């Protein structure tokens, strides 16, 4: 094998164990995120269902507006929590990928 072919095979070679570990970690992270977002969707459905029940029971426009205002306030708090969760999840995934790059098992081009 020539030196150029040897260098090329070294650059192209990616250790499969490291890739498997990264894929496993990412899959676990995605599964956890999926479960958290499913719980979040359920809580949103409950929020709007409670509002519907409250509006049905109201006897005046001011009472209905108060119920709606409380619901919207809670929804805005949920949206802020969603943003924090999304940021944390993206940061976690980025850290895992960056850690694998810094771990030395990704190929590097020789100069």
Describe the protein in words.
The structure is a single chain. With 111 residues, this protein is mainly alpha-helical. The chain has one domain. Helix content is 85%, strand content 0%. The chain has three helices and no strands. The chain has helices at 3-12, 16-57, 61-102. Helix 2 packs antiparallel against helix 3 (61-102). The mean pLDDT is 85.
How many strands?
0
- Portion of residues in beta strands equals under 5%
User: Helix/strand/pairing class, anyone?
Assistant: mainly alpha
What is the global morphology? Answer: rod-shaped
- Rg from Cα: 25 Å
Major sheet attributes: none
Order of helices and strands: HHH
- How many DSSP helices? 3
Give the total of domains. 1
The mean pLDDT is: 85
Low-confidence stretches: none
Percent in helix: over 70%
Amino-to-carboxy terminus distance = 19 Å
